[in-house]
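Q: My labmate handed me this sequence with no annotations at all. I'd like to see what the chain might look like in three dimensions before we decide whether it's worth expressing. Could you predict it?
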Amino acid sequence: MSSRRGDYELAYGELAHAFQEHGDTPAFWDICDAVEARLIDSYPEDDSAIIEMIAAWLVHMGVQPEASLHGKV
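A: Here is what I predict for the chain of 73 residues:
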């Protein structure tokens, strides 16, 4: 379980850094998609939870309001 937690923490850091570097641009969303895909590949049994977790992270980071993320993540 600690490996999973570490993977999630790394993913959050990657997204936070990408948002700082790129802002709300296609490059950021490409990185977001890649991070999401990597986590789902690693933990396919948690695919729905991973999608929801990333959406919550994006709201927490102030990327966009929650309602505007539907269909992007």
